[in-house]
Every structure is written in structure tokens, then in C-alpha cells.
Amino acid sequence: MLNSVILIGRLARKPEIRQASSGNSFCPFTLVVSNYENGNEKANYITCFAWEKTAENMEKFLDKGSLIAVNGNLRSRKNQTSGYSEMFVNAYQVKFLEPKKTTRYVDDIDFDVANKKLTKEEKKDLDATFNKDVSIDENKKENIENKKDNQENNTSKKDDLSFDVSEIDW
Is the pTM above the cut of 0.90? Predict the structure, then answer.
């Protein structure tokens, strides 16, 4: 018999590590997977568990909405309150399918604000900011050029100390 599950979906919330009574760390997470029924897309929310290092990496690198692939096996447990059996995926491999988000999702961007034209005052402030950056770079260039000039002056002083070997009294 074969018990293998491969799922690709997005995290419903940010993963958080917990400690089992045995002392092992684990991360329960919900994977949102698309399901097409009669041409309509529906979402399935699948409970999964990752353990030890996999759980630590998930908490460290993933966020709500991260796209991942889960490779694991299907397990069941009896719910203490309802008495029903619950199915979950015991993930033994989780692959991160996209880099960690450092900016907002494209859907979250307000394009009216992003496409707003700058006023003259805002343009001046922006130009002043760029000019400050350029002036700092120019100051650095001047300092470097001054250092080079000083080094050249030092080498020229050394040249003044040169003498002819024939002048030495052996």
C-alpha cells in the first residue's frame, strides 16, 4: 500500500513553532489549495504538520500567503471533543516555491496613489534629496583626490633624498 500526498498551495497564516510533550518542535499550518468543481474554483483548507528543522525554517522564512509544495503522508486522529476522525498531512518535506516577500503583494498596492503626479514642492524636495546624495559623493571624491595628492607629494620628497652612488665614500 502507498500513502503519499503532494500538495501545492499558499499558507493561510504565518507559521508558528510549538513544542510537543515529547520536547520535539513542530509547526501546525493550514495550506490553502485550489480545487476545480464543475468549472468553478474553490478553496480547500488542509491541516498539515511539519517537524523539527523543517518547522524552524518555515517559521523563519515563510509568511502568510507564501507559495509552498508539501510532500508527506495522510494521517488521521480522533478529535477529543467531537469524537470524529480528522485527516491531516504529516509533512516530511516542504519546498519554498517563491522568495520571501519583502514588499506588499501587487493586489495591495493602491495604484491611484502610486500614479499620482508630484507637485512642484514635492519635486523640489525630491531633487534636493538627490542633490544631497551627489554632493556627498563629490566630497568623497575630493577627499580621495586630496589623499592621492598627499601621497604624490610624499613620494616626491623621497625622490629629493636620492643621491648618486659615486658620491658615497667606500
Answer: no
